[in-house]
Amino acid sequence: MLRMPPVANPRLALSATGKVFCILKTPYRDGTTQVAFDSVDFMVRLAVLPHRHGAI
Question: Around 50, how many Cα atoms within 13 Å sit in the side-chain half-sphere?
Fold first, then answer.
């Protein structure tokens, strides 16, 4: 069974300084179109996303 990733790869970018940029599907009301994370902080946030039932 094919599973969708929690974040689409085309929406992620890695900067030269090691920051991970995530482009938002819908801009925030204040006009924000992307958010930046340190690579470790991004991995921590990704790891705590709820897993789908039956995922391996």
Answer: 2
